[in-house]
Amino acid sequence: MTDTRSRHVSPTAGAGEGDLAERPRRVFICLEIPPDRQQQIEALTSSLLLRTPAIRRVQAHLLHITMFFCGNLDWADIDRVDRAAATAAGGAGPFVLTTDILGAFPPHGPARVVWLGLHDGVDEAGRLHRSLIGALRAEGFEVGGRADFSPHITLGRVRQGVRGDDLFRITASIARARRIGPVRIPVNHLTVMESLSGQSGPTYLPISRYPLT
Predict the structure, then answer these.
(1) In the chain, where does DSSP find H-type helix?
(2) Which stretch of DSSP H or E encloses residue 165?
């Protein structure tokens, strides 16, 4: 299998003189969305999200499908994550996901997270996820409740402090929304990603990519 790993050392605000490469990194495993499909999704959903300024939108270039959130890891643990991702990717082939309807978490009551559902390819995504969970467990990771998987794209989060009528309107507008797209999303690799916090929002940097072969 081709390992396209590209390990990076990113500056950290206020860091001391120590080796920045040794700091813990916030890591997740995901399916990346091609840039042109990210733009399509933003264009199709922006009218709804722009009408509700109480929603903090995810920028188009950050849209992705989370497979597993790993947490803060050092490089030794990232090595184990890499091995698990390589194992899972090696047993799966490319597939295509298609966008479906808007939804929200929690499923009942006031919305807090707005997401875009997926169909077509969800069985393949589910098998890849199960393989990934098994490989992570084999590498010694405690998976716990994170083994549950419902593929989706997070579009935005309701801002802190939004309550009452504003929250009701957001929830009602999501419930009235129709299917988005369809946008076809080709899935060709599994990515181990680092999330960096910043004043203008997060930045995602690929640590490694493993082709689905």
Answers:
(1) 35-50, 75-90, 122-138, 164-176
(2) helix 164-176
What is the CA 174 to chain-centroid distance, rounded? 20
Helix (H, G, I), strand (E, B) or coil at 72: strand
Q: Which two tokens stand for residue 212?
A: 């689905």
The pTM of this model reads 0.85
The DSSP secondary-structure symbol of 172 reads H
State which amino acid sits at residue 79.
Answer: D
Cis peptide before 106 (omega within 30 of 0): yes
Q: Are 31 and 125 in contact (CB under 8 A)?
A: yes
59-99 pLDDT, tens digit each: 999 999 999 999 999 999 999 999 999 999 999 999 999 99
Q: What is the pLDDT of residue 175?
A: 72
User: DSSP label at 83?
Assistant: H
Contact predicate 126/151, CB 8 Å: yes
> b/e for 176-198, b at 16 or more Cβ within 10 A?
ebeebbebebebbbbbbbbeeee
For residue 195, give the nearest of 184, 207, 186 by alpha carbon: 207
Q: What is the pLDDT of residues 96-147, one digit of tens each?
A: 999 988 888 887 767 788 899 998 999 999 999 999 999 999 999 998 876 7
pLDDT digits 0-9 by tens, 44-64: 888 776 566 778 889 999 999
